[in-house]
Design a protein that fits this description.
- The structure holds 2 protein chains of 2 kinds.
- Helix content of chain A is about 65%, strand content about 5%.
- By secondary structure, chain A is an alpha/beta fold.
- A 5-stranded mixed sheet of chain A has the order 2-1-3-4-5, sandwiched between helices.
- Chain B is of the alpha/beta class.
- Chain B folds into 2 domains: about 220 residues, P-loop containing nucleotide triphosphate hydrolases (Rossmann fold, 3-Layer(aba) Sandwich), CATH 3.40.50.300; about 60 residues, Alpha-Beta Plaits.
- In chain B, the strands form 3 sheets. In chain B, strands 6-7-8-3-9-10 form a 6-stranded mixed sheet, sandwiched between helices. In chain B, strands 2-1-4-5 form a 4-stranded antiparallel sheet, with helices on one face. Chain B has a 4-stranded antiparallel sheet with strand order 12-13-11-14, sandwiched between helices.
- The longest helix of chain B is centred in the middle third of the chain and has 16 residues.
- Chain B is globular.
- Classes of the chains: A alpha/beta, B alpha/beta.
- Chains A and B meet through helix 1 and helix 9 of A and helix 2 and helix 3 of B.
- The complex binds adenosine-5'-triphosphate (ATP) and magnesium ion.
Chain lengths: ~375, ~300
């Protein structure tokens, strides 16, 4: 009574046939990732530009004007007017006519030259923190450039010392400076998790729900043969999804792929398997396809919110980080970003790999303990 | 080697605190056709599932083909064919794909030929590419039957195999069963049809999870000990109602244009017969009690014993 390749193949063939016949599900498996990519990549722009900006200029020397020019050309700010008092600026922020108010203090230029380190205040509408993030991150650089260009002669002595001014920003939420370059690799973690978990969970519960489980387990088939035979076709689906994803990332979003393909390959295989195992575990708990679906969605929420996909991991409170660390997507997300954006090699992702490995071991263990070869 | 194919003792199973199978003992001799009868919800399906390792009994032991039902369900599954009561092949696979899948599960060597032959025997060769889900109810049943026999198992466990099957196909099916039994295959078959019950060599009857009687099919009626009278004549309805109230009569069952009046107390029933015959309105003839009367009697009797609390 040991593992039989023939029976494993039989289950595999059956699953492929069923998958092929279930056209809508199949289409969704390919369609969902593309849809998500397009939505997250294009429509949901967390790095908006041309945000309405008001300026309170108590100094209108060349440096101050250069700063305004710099802000305008950066694309983040659309300078729309001048305010003359702090109250006026506050009102504009409150009623939404402006997203930013920049306050350049009196004698700014003179103080810079004298090394008094004057402060520029950037008041930002923080109600949509993510929206302001990019602009806030950019302001310091803009000011530095503007000053060094206009006051280069006067400032040479201070070139290597701390900047001769400071920009005070009302503390903003800034999710790692999200751009589509950053969000797209993260999406792979979410897409794979979402489809892999749900598909496997449903595929197994479907047998129970339709009653075919009874015939299946009345044959000599072993649990391992069923599990592998059912999981493999979806590994294939995971490959297709990843392929589609990589192509789209490259063609549509110009996301670079800097690191080692091998590291990526190892990582995403491990990640696919851990998600399939999770789906299998869910299928041992759920009694119906509907339940399997619901539990899958239930696991999807923390995956999106606590993995570092939506919000930067480091900014989360301790308890949220603890939960996040138990989620495979958290580690895969880091892995993909490292490999695609930072050019990581195998050695750089070792930590992420073994963390996913531990999560997988735990899930597989529980799933195998829960899998019943009987109808009880 | 043992002379029995299946033997179980003390088999017990509860679902959420309700005993569905209760201390059941059953011995199925090799090469016999063993009928498994009982009202709806009496525990037939549950018993069969325990025999082939699909359910774990709460208590009890037994063996099937010499393999322990608790420890060796793997070996049991390789050597039996189980046809489920509810159609449980894949509706989204074709007829051929279903048969092929089952054949692969048993690692059959000449798979293609076997599947072809099964299709031929079924008379479905020209519809092999039809999805199983689109078959009519009776044809699904026949497909399931073919599927569970494809690996030529030594023991067949058939759970109401002919439910919804037309009379001609039913006859063919029983011819096939008898042919297989002749070759030494053991067949345990649950059924609600009396005309099928009489074709069995042995019969066990259970109600509310308890076995009420088992033995050779032809001996069952005498084991129950019923005497039966056949009553013919006009206005049977009124007579039936009157007889039901008579303390000397155990049960009255109508079969078309005749009444079968039975009772366990032969003398009391004879008195009733004499009295009624004297009225000269109906013909009363003594007849040997049949299986059907026996089972109807057992049913009524078991209800007395267990009350309606055991009803599913
Ligand atoms: N998985 C289960 N969970 C809970 N109760 C169950 C389960 N399976 C069966 N039962 C109950 O056990 C009892 C016996 O069911 P079983 O299917 O064995 O009856 P049966 O004799 O096959 O009936 P039928 O002639 O209608 O097929 C029923 O009351 C049923 O409700
Ligand atoms: Mg049943």
């Amino acid at each position: 009574m040991r593992f039989s390749l023939a029976r494993f193949r039989a289950v595999l063939v059956k699953e492929f046939i069923q998958m092929r016949r279930d056209r809508i599900t199949f289409a969704m498996m390919i369609g969902v990732p593309i849809m998500q990519l397009l939505l997250f990549g294009y429509a949901i722009n967390s790095d908006p530009r041309h945000l309405p900006t008001l300026v309170e200029m108590a100094d209108d020397g060349p440096a101050s004007r250069a700063i305004l020019m710099g802000m305008q050309t950066s694309g983040y700010f659309e300078v729309e007017g001048i305010v003359t008092s702090a109250e006026e600026g506050d009102r504009a922020l409150r009623d939404g006519t402006a997203s930013f108010v920049v306050v350049i203090p009196p004698d700014f230029e003179r103080d810079v030259v004298r090394g008094h380190s004057p402060q520029i205040l950037l008041a930002a509408d923080a109600s949509d923190p993510a929206a302001a993030g990019g602009a806030v991150a950019a302001i310091s650089g803009i000011v530095t450039t503007a000053i060094s260009e206009t006051l280069s002669g006067a400032l040479t002595y201070a070139a290597s010392s701390p900047p001769p001014f400071s920009v005070v920003v009302h503390r903003q939420f800034n999710p790692e400076g999200q751009t589509s370059t950053n969000i797209v690799p993260g999406l792979l973690a979410i897409i794979l998790s979402m489809t892999m978990v749900m598909i496997t969970a449903v595929a197994i519960v479907r047998e129970t729900e339709r009653g075919t489980m009874e015939t299946l387990i009345s044959t000599p088939v072993r649990p391992g043969e069923v599990m592998l035979g059912k999981i493999f076709p979806y590994v294939f689906v995971g490959y297709v999804q990843t392929g589609v994803f990589l192509a789209a990332a490259r063609i549509l979003f110009d996301v670079p792929f800097l690191g080692s393909p091998l590291a990526f390959f190892v990582g995403f295989n491990l990640y696919i398997i851990v998600n399939l195992a999770l789906g299998f575990l869910i299928s041992t708990i759920a009694r119906s396809q509907m339940q399997a679906m619901q539990i899958s969605f239930f696991t999807l929420l923390p995956t999106i919110l606590l993995s570092g996909f939506m919000f930067p991991f480091a900014g989360m409170p301790g308890w949220a980080q603890a939960i996040g660390s138990a989620i495979p997507a958290t580690h895969f997300l880091r892995l993909v970003r490292k490999v695609m954006l930072k050019g990581a090699e195998m050695a750089d992702i070792a930590t992420d790999l073994w963390r996913i490995g531990i999560i997988m071991a735990v899930i597989v263990l529980i799933a195998l303990r829960r899998y019943r070869q009987t109808l009880d | 080697m043992s002379e029995h194919a299946i033997s179980v003792r003390g088999l017990t199973k509860s679902f959420s605190g309700r005993r569905v199978v209760d201390n059941l003992e059953m011995v199925v001799p090799k090469g016999s056709i063993y009928g498994f009868l009982g009202p709806n919800g009496s525990g037939k399906t549950t018993t069969i599932r325990m025999m082939c390792g699909l359910l774990t009994p709460d208590a009890g032991e037994g063996d099937c083909l010499g393999f322990d039902i608790l420890q060796q369900s793997g070996q049991i599954k390789e050597n039996i064919g189980y046809m489920t009561q509810k159609f449980s092949l894949y509706e989204d696979l074709t007829i051929r794909e279903n048969l092929d899948f089952v054949a692969r599960m048993y690692k059959m060597t000449n798979r293609k030929a076997r599947v072809d032959k099964a299709l031929e025997d079924l008379g479905l060769a020209d519809r092999a590419k039809q999805l199983a889900g689109t078959l009519s109810g009776g044809w699904k049943q026949r497909l399931a039957l073919a599927a569970c026999m494809i690996h030529e198992p030594e023991v067949l466990l058939l759970d109401e195999p002919t439910a919804g099957v037309d009379p001609k196909a039913r006859r063919d099916f029983w011819d096939e069963i008898r042919r297989l039994a002749g070759k030494g295959v053991t067949v345990l078959v649950s059924t609600h049809y009396m005309d099928e019950a009489v074709q069995c060599d042995y019969i066990a009857y259970i109600a509310y999870g308890k076995k009420l009687i088992d033995g050779l099919a032809r001996e069952i009626p005498s084991m129950v000990g019923l005497s039966t009278w056949l009553v013919e004549g006009p206005e049977l309805g009124a007579l039936e109602a009157a007889l039901r109230k008579d303390p000397g009569v155990g049960q009255v069952a109508r079969f078309g244009t005749v009444l079968h009046v039975s009772g366990i107390d032969t003398a009391a029933l004879e008195k009733v017969a004499e009295r009624e015959t004297a009225k000269k309105t109906h013909d009363w003839t003594r007849k040997e009690a049949g299986l059907e009367e026996a089972f109807i009697y057992l049913m009524a009797h078991s209800q007395d014993n267990f009350g309606s609390g055991g009803q599913a």
